[in-house]
């Protein structure tokens, strides 16, 4: 579509005038006088536009009155119709050849149009920037999630590829071996795993028995004597266990000996020099007796698992039940077994 050069020149002239007006406006600081002058110019321009509109409306009304033709009175005359068409053509040609009236120099209308258009563009730009910011944030979060998913997928793919290669190599190796050789290898692997399980079990039992001897035995002995429940008092001395506890669960106080003789002092010195030996491997004190009882109970439960074993009511059995390690028979409190941790209680 070709644009006339005259119209282009008018648009360029308008743009230059607007730029000059904006530069002058930027150079002049805002003051009460400038604002008052600007408002006066606005009022003058508005009044001028209203007068121009009124003048155009008057001229249009006059043209309509002059050129009004009663189609009913034209009749069938050919020359009357031709003259009517010529007048209409002349009117249209005059309208097409008329120039568009631009605002005069110094009019604030171009500045108003420019300010309005600039404000509209600024508002749309702000809205677009906020929408773009929100979309950018969500897009970045989406990209992070997709990158994480991609890394996970790549890790899974690499693991599956390694597993496929391992299985393929194992299958190829098995195909080359005889059935008897494969059976021997499987038996050897099972024996090796069993030996590892036995070794791990022994190490666990050793650590468990060491815990019983160091920490648990004294608390079990105190509970069996009527003292505090296991866990309430962490460290109970052998002297306290030898004295025992009262009916209220308090440690007994040592008795004051008022009479001493040589035989008692001599016996005490002999006991200090040569400790009394256990008779037939019996425990020397109550702490060791509680530790031996707990060991025997654990051995019996481990050997009978998951069956029940006959036990007597003691601090050791009560502690295992409270610790959720063992459970009594639903209808017989003299029977105890380990809890199957692979199942739901």
Automatic annotation (TrEMBL):
Record localization: Chromosome, Centromere; Nucleus
Coiled coil residues, start to end: 32-66, 143-203
Residue span of region Disordered: 243-269
Domain of life of the native organism: Eukaryota
The UniProt record lists the keyword Cell cycle: no
Keywords tagged on the record: Centromere, Chromosome, Coiled coil, Nucleus
GO cellular component: chromosome, centromeric region; nucleus
GO BP of this protein: kinetochore assembly; mitotic sister chromatid segregation
Major location (coarse): nucleus
The keyword Nucleus is assigned to this record: yes
Family: Belongs to the CENP-K/MCM22 family.
Official protein name in the record: Uncharacterized protein
Species this protein is from: Aspergillus saccharolyticus JOP 1030-1
């Amino acid at each position: 579509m070709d644009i006339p050069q005259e119209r282009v020149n008018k648009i360029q002239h308008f743009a230059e005038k607007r730029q000059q007006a904006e530069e002058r406006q930027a150079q002049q600081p805002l003051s009460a006088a400038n604002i008052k002058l600007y408002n006066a110019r606005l009022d003058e321009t508005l009044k001028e536009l209203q007068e121009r509109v009124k003048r155009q409306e008057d001229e249009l009304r006059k043209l309509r009155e002059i050129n009004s033709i009663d189609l009913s009175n034209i009749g069938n005359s050919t020359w009357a119709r031709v003259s009517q068409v010529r007048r209409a053509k002349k009117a249209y040609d005059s309208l097409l050849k008329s120039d568009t009236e631009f605002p005069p120099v110094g009019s604030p209308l171009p500045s108003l149009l420019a300010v309005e258009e600039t404000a509209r563009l600024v508002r749309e730009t702000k809205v677009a920037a906020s929408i773009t910011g929100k979309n950018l944030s969500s897009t970045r979060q989406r990209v992070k999630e997709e990158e994480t998913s991609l890394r996970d997928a790549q890790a899974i793919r690499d693991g599956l590829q390694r597993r496929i290669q391992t299985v393929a190599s194992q299958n190829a190796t098995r195909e080359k071996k005889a059935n008897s050789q494969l059976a021997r290898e499987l038996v050897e692997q099972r024996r090796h795993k069993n030996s590892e399980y036995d070794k791990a079990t022994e190490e666990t039992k050793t650590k468990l028995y060491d815990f019983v001897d160091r920490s648990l035995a004294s608390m079990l002995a105190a509970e069996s004597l009527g003292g505090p429940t296991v866990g309430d008092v962490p460290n109970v001395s052998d002297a306290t266990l030898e004295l025992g506890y009262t009916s209220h669960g308090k440690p007994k106080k040592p008795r004051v000996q008022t009479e001493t003789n040589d035989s008692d002092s001599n016996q005490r010195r002999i006991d200090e020099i040569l400790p009394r030996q256990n008779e037939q491997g019996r425990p020397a004190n109550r702490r060791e007796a509680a530790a031996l009882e707990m060991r025997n109970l654990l051995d019996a439960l481990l050997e009978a698992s998951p069956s029940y074993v006959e036990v007597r009511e003691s601090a050791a059995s009560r502690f295992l039940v409270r610790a959720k390690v063992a459970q009594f028979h639903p209808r017989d409190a003299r029977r105890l077994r380990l809890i199957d941790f692979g199942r739901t209680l």
